[in-house]
Protein backbone atom coordinates (compact mmCIF):
# COMPACT_ATOMS: atom_id res chain seq x y z
CA UNK A 1 0.00 0.00 0.00
CA UNK A 2 2.91 2.36 0.69
CA UNK A 3 3.99 2.05 -2.95
CA UNK A 4 0.55 3.16 -4.13
CA UNK A 5 0.61 6.13 -1.76
CA UNK A 6 4.11 7.17 -2.87
CA UNK A 7 3.19 6.77 -6.53
CA UNK A 8 0.02 8.82 -6.12
CA UNK A 9 1.98 11.47 -4.25
CA UNK A 10 4.59 11.59 -7.02
CA UNK A 11 1.84 11.92 -9.62
CA UNK A 12 0.32 14.87 -7.74
CA UNK A 13 3.76 16.51 -7.47
CA UNK A 14 4.33 16.04 -11.20
CA UNK A 15 0.93 17.52 -12.07
CA UNK A 16 1.48 20.44 -9.70
CA UNK A 17 4.94 21.16 -11.06
CA UNK A 18 4.08 20.80 -14.73
CA UNK A 19 0.97 22.97 -14.59
CA UNK A 20 2.83 25.71 -12.68
CA UNK A 21 3.56 27.72 -15.79
CA UNK A 22 0.22 27.02 -17.46
CA UNK A 23 -2.46 27.88 -14.91
CA UNK A 24 -1.79 30.77 -12.56
CA UNK A 25 -3.13 34.20 -11.71
CA UNK A 26 -0.42 36.88 -11.57
CA UNK A 27 -0.94 39.36 -8.72
CA UNK A 28 2.03 41.71 -8.45
CA UNK A 29 5.00 39.64 -7.33
CA UNK A 30 2.77 36.67 -6.42
CA UNK A 31 1.58 33.92 -8.71
CA UNK A 32 -1.69 32.52 -7.40
CA UNK A 33 -1.88 28.86 -8.33
CA UNK A 34 -5.35 27.25 -7.99
CA UNK A 35 -4.09 23.82 -9.08
CA UNK A 36 -1.90 23.74 -5.96
CA UNK A 37 -4.94 24.17 -3.75
CA UNK A 38 -6.80 21.40 -5.55
CA UNK A 39 -3.78 19.16 -4.99
CA UNK A 40 -3.71 20.15 -1.31
CA UNK A 41 -7.34 19.04 -0.90
CA UNK A 42 -6.76 15.77 -2.76
CA UNK A 43 -3.57 15.06 -0.77
CA UNK A 44 -5.21 15.91 2.56
CA UNK A 45 -8.16 13.59 1.94
CA UNK A 46 -6.45 10.63 0.30
CA UNK A 47 -2.94 10.79 1.79
CA UNK A 48 -3.11 12.70 5.08
CA UNK A 49 -1.38 15.76 6.51
CA UNK A 50 2.25 14.59 6.17
CA UNK A 51 1.95 13.79 2.49
CA UNK A 52 -0.08 16.96 1.89
CA UNK A 53 2.62 19.18 3.40
CA UNK A 54 5.44 17.29 1.69
CA UNK A 55 3.65 17.48 -1.67
CA UNK A 56 3.13 21.24 -1.23
CA UNK A 57 6.79 21.73 -0.28
CA UNK A 58 8.17 19.67 -3.18
CA UNK A 59 5.87 21.36 -5.73
CA UNK A 60 6.87 24.81 -4.43
CA UNK A 61 10.56 23.87 -4.48
CA UNK A 62 10.45 22.44 -8.00
CA UNK A 63 8.46 25.40 -9.34
CA UNK A 64 11.05 27.77 -7.87
CA UNK A 65 13.97 25.76 -9.26
CA UNK A 66 12.31 25.79 -12.69
CA UNK A 67 11.63 29.53 -12.47
CA UNK A 68 7.82 29.29 -12.65
CA UNK A 69 7.08 29.99 -8.99
CA UNK A 70 7.97 32.42 -6.26
CA UNK A 71 9.15 32.14 -2.67
CA UNK A 72 5.61 33.03 -1.63
CA UNK A 73 4.47 29.56 -2.73
CA UNK A 74 5.99 28.00 0.38
CA UNK A 75 3.92 29.58 3.16
CA UNK A 76 0.73 29.70 1.12
CA UNK A 77 0.68 26.10 0.01
CA UNK A 78 2.23 24.43 3.04
CA UNK A 79 0.13 26.07 5.76
CA UNK A 80 -3.06 25.37 3.82
CA UNK A 81 -2.05 21.76 3.18
CA UNK A 82 -1.23 21.24 6.85
CA UNK A 83 -4.53 22.62 8.14
CA UNK A 84 -6.54 20.77 5.50
CA UNK A 85 -4.80 17.49 6.32
CA UNK A 86 -5.15 17.84 10.08
CA UNK A 87 -8.81 18.85 9.88
CA UNK A 88 -9.65 15.95 7.59
CA UNK A 89 -7.77 13.52 9.81
CA UNK A 90 -9.61 14.77 12.93
CA UNK A 91 -13.11 15.18 11.46
CA UNK A 92 -13.29 13.29 8.11
CA UNK A 93 -15.41 16.24 6.96
CA UNK A 94 -14.59 17.52 3.47
CA UNK A 95 -15.99 20.98 4.13
CA UNK A 96 -13.77 21.42 7.20
CA UNK A 97 -10.91 20.29 4.97
CA UNK A 98 -11.76 23.02 2.46
CA UNK A 99 -12.09 25.50 5.32
CA UNK A 100 -8.63 24.53 6.58
CA UNK A 101 -7.14 25.00 3.13
CA UNK A 102 -8.87 28.35 2.60
CA UNK A 103 -8.00 29.72 6.06
CA UNK A 104 -4.48 28.29 6.04
CA UNK A 105 -3.58 29.54 2.59
CA UNK A 106 -5.75 32.62 2.24
CA UNK A 107 -5.40 34.16 5.69
CA UNK A 108 -2.37 32.62 7.40
CA UNK A 109 -0.37 32.04 4.20
CA UNK A 110 -1.18 35.56 3.02
CA UNK A 111 0.06 37.01 6.32
CA UNK A 112 3.17 34.81 6.47
CA UNK A 113 4.05 35.92 2.93
CA UNK A 114 4.51 39.52 4.08
CA UNK A 115 7.89 39.04 5.83
CA UNK A 116 9.13 36.88 2.96
CA UNK A 117 8.20 39.55 0.42
CA UNK A 118 9.62 42.35 2.56
CA UNK A 119 12.86 40.86 3.88
CA UNK A 120 13.82 38.20 1.33
CA UNK A 121 12.42 39.75 -1.84
CA UNK A 122 12.87 43.41 -0.90
CA UNK A 123 9.29 44.47 -1.73
CA UNK A 124 7.61 47.25 0.21
CA UNK A 125 4.00 46.13 0.62
CA UNK A 126 1.26 46.19 3.24
CA UNK A 127 0.89 43.23 5.61
CA UNK A 128 -2.49 42.20 4.19
CA UNK A 129 -1.49 42.62 0.53
CA UNK A 130 -1.56 38.89 -0.29
CA UNK A 131 -4.67 37.89 1.65
CA UNK A 132 -7.29 38.71 -1.03
CA UNK A 133 -5.40 37.19 -4.00
CA UNK A 134 -4.52 34.09 -1.99
CA UNK A 135 -8.16 33.74 -0.89
CA UNK A 136 -9.41 33.99 -4.48
CA UNK A 137 -6.94 31.37 -5.63
CA UNK A 138 -7.53 28.95 -2.76
CA UNK A 139 -11.32 29.16 -2.84
CA UNK A 140 -11.40 28.29 -6.55
CA UNK A 141 -8.73 25.61 -6.29
CA UNK A 142 -10.25 24.05 -3.18
CA UNK A 143 -13.60 23.57 -4.81
CA UNK A 144 -11.95 22.10 -7.90
CA UNK A 145 -10.16 19.68 -5.55
CA UNK A 146 -13.45 18.86 -3.84
CA UNK A 147 -15.07 18.05 -7.19
CA UNK A 148 -12.13 15.84 -8.17
CA UNK A 149 -12.35 14.01 -4.83
CA UNK A 150 -16.04 13.35 -5.49
CA UNK A 151 -15.14 11.88 -8.88
CA UNK A 152 -12.25 9.79 -7.52
CA UNK A 153 -13.96 8.43 -4.41
CA UNK A 154 -15.83 5.68 -6.26
CA UNK A 155 -12.59 4.16 -7.57
CA UNK A 156 -11.37 1.10 -5.63
CA UNK A 157 -7.77 2.34 -5.28
CA UNK A 158 -8.88 5.68 -3.89
CA UNK A 159 -11.15 3.95 -1.37
CA UNK A 160 -8.19 1.90 -0.20
CA UNK A 161 -6.00 5.01 0.06
CA UNK A 162 -8.51 6.66 2.39
CA UNK A 163 -8.92 3.57 4.57
CA UNK A 164 -5.23 3.21 5.43
CA UNK A 165 -4.26 4.78 8.74
CA UNK A 166 -2.29 7.92 8.05
Topology, element by element:
Blueprint: H1 2-18, E1 25-27, E2 30-32, H2 34-46, H3 49-65, H4 73-91, H5 94-120, H6 131-152, H7 156-163
Antiparallel strand pairs: 1-2
Looking across the biggest beta sheet, what order are the strands in?
A: 1-2
pLDDT below 50 for ≥5 consecutive residues: which ranges? none
Number of strands: 2
Can you count the helices?
7
Radius of gyration: 15 Å
Strand coverage percent: under 5%
Distance between the termini: 12 Å
Assembly level:
single chain
- Main structural class: mainly alpha
Overall geometry comes to globular
Order of helices and strands: HEEHHHHHH
Biggest sheet features: 2 strands, antiparallel
> What is the mean pLDDT?
86
Question: What share of the residues lie within helices?
Answer: over 70%
Amino acid sequence: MKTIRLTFSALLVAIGTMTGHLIYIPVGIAKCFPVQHAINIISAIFLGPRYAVLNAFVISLLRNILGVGSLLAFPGSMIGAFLAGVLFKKTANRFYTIGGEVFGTGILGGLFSYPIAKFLMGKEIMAFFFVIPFLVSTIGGSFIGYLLVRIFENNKIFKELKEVDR
